[in-house]
Amino acid sequence: DGGITQSPKYLFRKEGQNVTLSCEQNLNHDAMYWYRQDPGQGLRLIYYSQIVNDFQKGDIAEGYSVSREKKESFPLTVTSAQKNPTAFYLCASTAGWGYGYTFGSGTRLTVV
Amino acid sequence: GENVEQHPSTLSVQEGDSAVIKCTYSDSASNYFPWYKQELGKRPQLIIDIRSNVGEKKDQRIAVTLNKTAKHFSLHITETQPEDSAVYFCAAIYTGTASKLTFGTGTRLQVTL
């Protein structure tokens, strides 16, 4: 999948449950990002990481958490504090500033 | 921070006609402007990009123009085909710093037969 893999493709979450979305890349990219996309809307940045063991909040970080223990991996946890988590989640990576992002194929999360 | 506005939100053209999507940005320091195409349920894919030292860039039927003074850039698609139907996003960033790519809200392009 173009060097960046997201799993699962579909995920269902019960009320009050934490769930973790996986993002793995084999592109040797330093920077990784998580975006949320709602129907008919643009991409909103949740968290991003420029280097291992470091990450910054994006525009809508509340109710989400991340870790960056390995260069290849940037998992996103959607916590029970996120009241409206149903959306399409996209992970992306880039070799550095000035390069276009490579996106994963996305995870569609639905609250049941 | 950077703010990117994109117009129109929807665009319908007949096959063979041209389509133009316009974006404006707020941060005069932004120097890299990519465009992404997203088909329904798929990931966004980079289709063309332009840097601030260039005024225009073309790749077959797709072109992007940049007006740094006015802080706007546009995507031009000529001889549109049904497979061009998708959502297109513009974006802007100031490279070389720990900044993030800011996306426009998207334009849904529909190419009709």
Task: Provide a compact summary of the structure.
The complex is a heterodimer of chains A (112) and B (113). With 112 residues, chain A is mostly beta strands. Chain A has strands at 4-7, 10-13, 19-25, 31-37, 43-51, 54-57, 64-66, 76-78, 87-94, 102-103, 107-111.
Protein architecture, described:
The complex is a heterodimer of chains A (112) and B (113). With 112 residues, chain A is mostly beta strands. Helices cover 0% and strands 50% of the residues of chain A. Chain A contains no helices and 11 strands. In chain A, strands 2, 4, 5, 6, 9, 10 and 11 form a 7-stranded mixed beta sheet that branches. In chain A, a hairpin with a 2-residue loop joins strand 5 and strand 6. Chain B has no helices and 11 strands. In chain B, the strands form 2 sheets. In chain B, strands 2, 4, 5, 9, 10 and 11 form a 6-stranded mixed beta sheet that branches. In chain B, strands 1-3-8-7-6 form a 5-stranded antiparallel beta sheet, with no helix packed on it. In chain B, strand 4 and strand 5 form a beta hairpin. At the A-B interface, strand 5 and strand 10 of A face strand 5 of B.
Shape of chain B: globular
Radius of gyration of chain B: 14 Å
What class would the helix/strand composition of chain B place it in? mainly beta
* Overall average pLDDT of chain B: 93
**Rounded radius of gyration of chain A (Å):** 13 Å
Proportion of beta-strand residues of chain B: over 45%
Name the average pLDDT of chain A: 91
- Our estimate of the beta-strand percent of chain A is over 45%
The helicity of chain B comes to: under 10%
Quantity of strands of chain A, as a count? 11
How would a textbook summarize the main sheet of chain B?
6 strands, mixed
Largest interface: chains, residues each: A-B, 20 and 26 residues
Number of strands of chain B: 11
The quaternary structure here is heterodimer
Distance between the termini of chain B: 41 Å
| Low-confidence runs of chain B | none
Which class of secondary structure composition applies to the elements of chain A? mainly beta
